[in-house]
Amino acid sequence: MVFQTEKFNEVVKTNIGETFGTLLFMGFQEQQVFEDNKPVDGKFTASHVELFSEKLGDSYEFKLPNDFEIINIPLMAEVVVEGKGSPVIYSFTNRQTRNGQVTEFKDYGISVKIEGLKTKTSQSQPVKPDPKIENK
């Protein structure tokens, strides 16, 4: 038996920053959007984001909200998780194709769900060349 919940677990407190440390962006797990069992050209949604934890030395997938829009983040850019996070069991529609027949079925996963994601902006100024040094 599987207990499914799409809301945040208020009992288990998860401090993403303390647990995972500095997070580096590795990519979104994009899924093709389907309408009437046919793929919509050029339309994708992001269900998960893969982040590298410098503290733990490994990459992890975090579940994104259903209405999350894909944003442009450079590879290996430092990112910050917005809001709270908690462990969650979620369901998703999986598709399998055999002999040209598309079969849809419900599947389940467990992950850490986060509210949002943004890049960490650096407050440091770019390095300026020293005017005393001449290029010869």
Instruction: Please indicate the percent range of residues in DSSP E strands (runs of 2 or more).
Output: over 45%
Globular, elongated, flat, extended or rod-shaped: what is the shape?
globular
Number of domains: 1
> Which CATH C-level class is it?
Mainly Beta
- Structural class of the secondary elements? mainly beta
Q: What is the average of the pLDDT values? A: 79
Give the proportion of residues in helices: under 10%
Output the number of helix runs.
1
In angstroms, what is the radius of gyration? 20 Å
Major sheet strand order: 1-2-3-5-4
Distance N to C terminus: 74 Å
Low-confidence segments: 122-129
Topology pattern, helix = H, strand = E: HEEEEE
- CATH topology annotation: OB fold (Dihydrolipoamide Acetyltransferase, E2P)
Number of strands: 5
InterPro entries: YdcP-like_sf
Protein name: DUF961 domain-containing protein
Organism: Streptococcus parauberis
